Structure formats: structure tokens, C-alpha cells
Prior knowledge:
By secondary structure, the protein is mainly α. The chain has helices at residues 68-81, 90-103, 128-131, 136-148, 150-158, 171-185, 196-207, 211-229, 237-252, and strands at 36-42, 51-56, 62-64. The protein contains nine helices and three strands; from the N terminus they run βββααααααααα. The model is unreliable at 1-57 (pLDDT under 50).
Amino acid sequence: MGMDDRGDDGGSFVAVRRISQGLDRTNTCHAPSDEVVAGSTAWLGRSLSCVCVQRKAGDSRPSFDLTPAQEDCLQRLQNRLDIAYDGSIPEHQEALRALWKAAFPEEELRDLISEQWKEMGWQGKDPSTDFRGGGFISLENLLYLARNFPKSFQDLLQKQEGERAMWEYPFAVAGVNITFMLIQMLDLEAVKPRTFVGATFLKFLSENESAFDLLYCITFKLMDHKWLAMHASYMDFNAVMKSTRRQLERELLQDNVTRLEDLPSYSLLTR
């Protein structure tokens, strides 16, 4: 069964939309001084670097100025978001093979296009069709989880924890959805953050360039934890993802969180 967009209630999965090759970062976050109706210095959480919060006339969203280091880190992450999965690129092929080897080390992959991929939770025999929703970074996220938290990776893949539903979410496609959800939640397509959550994340990113990948791992485990707590089944995936996002946003804004490892949900991960 594929992922479709059936609205907020009753949809089996949040819609996976293709990320454009050139993200639109020409928005109005850079507000000229005569358009600023409120400018003040704000400290976002303990030890978060000082940023200037600006609010454009007629726009309820604040805009956060970044340090040069934060701008560089955000640009590098945005460059990763721009890369579409391309099965003709050897590096992408090798990454896909590496994912299979991490998932099923005892089973040889017969071909990059194979019915075997369905064992991992892809919708068909060619994973590239599912990667279109999240780009190459969604494959990198899965690989980061496999390499840095192999036990959590296998637990999620094999559904080894808790009392599972008869109709489970497909592991790989859920992973692509998580990548896409985080891009939206953190507003990573913008020139600079327009939410406190996004500004807080950039503080972490400037100190750890793998912050997005690490947050992905935390989110995947938190989503599975929510899935079990809600006794969810396949059609409940939308509701589980919404609950996961709300909890992540709350945790990111806690005063005692100065790095991603301080998030309460980080404790769900096991190596």
C-alpha cells in the first residue's frame, strides 16, 4: 500500500512531496530597517547565542539574524537538501548498497532494482522512487542511523520492541517521511529561521555539523515509542507523526537543553 495524501485524519501516511532542486530562499526574512516594527535582542534558551529578532509589518513570524558561522552551517545543510537521489551516480549506488548491507548483512542483494527491497519497507523494487520525497539526504539519514546506532537501527527495522500492530508502518518509507517532516519543522528551506525551534536547532548545528542526522535518529526512535504508546496501526501514522513533532518542539525549547544529547528522547537511542 502506498503513501497517499488523505488529509489530517484517517490518512495512512503524511504526503511525501518532492523537494525542488532549487529551494526558494529569496523570502522576506532580510527585512530592511524601515520595515522592522519590532527589533530586540533575545536569548533563546540557556547558552544560545544572541540573535536579533525582527518582525516585518504585516508578518506575524519573527526573523532571526545568524552569525556568519551559523549561516555557513545552514548553507552546507541546505546544499545537502538540494541533492536529489540519482541512481546513475556511483556514490549514490554505493550508499544504497551500504544501506542494504547494514540492514541485512547475511543476505546478498541481487540487484539495485530488486523485490528484496520490500523486506526493508520500500514500496516497490526500486527505492529511488521513494527517495524522491526526501532526496539523497534521506538515504544519508538512514545510513547515519545504521552506522552510529546499529542496535536502534535493527530494532526499528525488525520491529523488535514492544507489542506490535498487525499492520505496521514500513520502516524505510517512514524514514523518508521523518526526513521530510524535520525539514518542514525546522523551516530549513528559508534563508534564516522564522521560528524559535528553527533558531534553536541552528545553534546545535553550528556546534555539531551532524546535528540534523542525529536529530533524525532521535526522531525515528521517538516516533516508534509514540507508535507503541498509542497502540497505533498503519492508518494512524499521521497522528503519530504529529504527536512526535509536538514533543520534539517542546523538548528543543526546554531551558536545560544545550545540545541534542540533552533531549529527553535521546535516551531512547541505543548503540
